UniProtKB/TrEMBL annotation:
The lineage of its organism: Bacteria, Pseudomonadati, Verrucomicrobiota, Verrucomicrobiia, Verrucomicrobiales. GO terms for molecular function: phosphate:acyl-[acyl carrier protein] acyltransferase activity. This is Phosphate acyltransferase. It is found in: Cytoplasm. GO terms for cellular component: cytoplasm. GO terms for biological process: fatty acid biosynthetic process; phospholipid biosynthetic process. The gene is plsX. The keyword Ribosomal protein does not apply. It comes from Prosthecobacter vanneervenii.
Length: 340
């Protein structure tokens, strides 16, 4: 498997991306080539500092870096030799099978959309995030690619999320819920109400209706659909809340001798819960709906998270969800034309 890595993307670049490369080379034998895209001098310096060397590595020069202040569109138009643009070009040209970046999400989405193009009958790509709950993992889509969406886009999110849940998570007939402020049909804003009407008549989608915020952490459907603004708020709030709760529990455990003893006894359980809720375990989120594979990692991703983002790229190459999404979207389009 050949993967392009945006080494200059992220809050701790190039250290953490290179740290992820080191871990990936040790644990992911399916990788045949890792293209390290960015400033060659900076990459070579970091490879030497971390003692990373392999014939599987190839440095690809890129003279520009996207700043967080750049807009996604300007980053692509004005910085044509940025590390993310060069990395996506490797996928476009067939040299790499997937691209991984922890950099500017808007730039990664825009570069991928412009250069790779969307699948047939998919208007906009969407970020799929695998989320934890008390009972199972579920798919949040869109987790941040499109803050402003129309009802048709959310229907496409449902189609993409269902295909992902079916072929990656192994759910035979994945259930789909629409994020809203109440389970009743009349609840929600104009976007939710119109999307709900469309989803109830979308062939091939096992739509169960609206879901609320508390539902997704207890007994969620397999796929939760929303616009990118709402999804990104849910994602970041969940990550921050999990971190805060663990910090509060740790503080309380240290407050007395007896709670320290209890904490030692419960330590294995705490570790298991931390593993289930730690976003670093997932590493990256696939940008679905494109003619190519883009994995978006957190800007603050640790080396462990970067390794898992690269693993996500390998798994995406293996699963090849794109053709399944295109087939489902085409069937939906044919169904719409038959009804009209």
């Amino acid at each position: 498997m050949k993967i392009a890595l945006d080494v200059m993307g992220g809050d701790f670049a190039p250290q953490n991306p290179i740290g992820g490369v080191k871990l990936a080379l040790e644990s992911l034998p399916a990788i045949t080539k890792l293209f390290l895209v960015g400033d060659p001098a900076a990459i070579e310096k970091e490879l030497k500092a971390q003692g990373v060397s392999s014939p599987k590595l190839e440095i690809v020069p890129a003279s520009q870096v996207v700043d967080m202040a750049d807009s996604g569109l300007d980053a692509v138009r004005k910085k044509k030799d940025s590390s993310i643009s060069v990395a996506v070009n490797l996928v476009k040209d067939g040299k790499a099978e997937a691209v991984v970046s922890a950099g500017h999400t808007g730039a990664a989405v825009t570069a991928s959309l412009i250069k790779l193009r969307t699948l047939t009958h998919i208007e906009r790509p969407a970020i799929a995030s695998i989320m934890p709950s008390l009972t199972k993992h579920w798919v949040l889509i869109d987790a941040g690619a499109n803050p402003d969406s129309e009802p048709a886009h959310l229907v496409q999110n449902a189609i993409m999320g269902s295909a992902f849940a079916r072929h990656v998570l192994g759910r035979d007939n994945p259930t789909v819920g629409l994020m809203s402020n109440g389970t009743e049909e009349e609840k929600g804003n104009a976007l939710c109400k119109e999307t709900s009407k469309l989803l109830r008549h979308t062939a091939g989608i096992n739509f169960i209706g609206n879901v609320e915020g508390h539902d997704v952490w207890d007994t969620p459907p397999d796929v939760v659909v929303c616009d990118g603004f709402t999804g990104n708020v849910i994602l970041k709030n969940a990550e921050a809340l999990a971190h805060s709760i663990f910090s509060m529990v740790k503080s309380e455990i240290k407050s007395s001798f007896w709670t320290k003893i209890g904490g030692l006894l419960a330590k294995p359980a705490f570790k298991r819960v931390h593993t289930r809720t730690n976003p670093d375990e997932v590493g990256g989120m696939p940008l679905l709906g494109l003619r190519g594979i883009t994995i978006i990692a957190h800007g603050s991703a640790s080396p462990f998270a970067m390794k898992n983002a690269i693993r996500q790229a390998c798994e995406s190459i293996q699963h090849q969800v794109g053709p399944h999404i295109e087939a489902a979207a085409t069937a939906h389009s044919i169904s719409l034309h038959a009804r009209s």
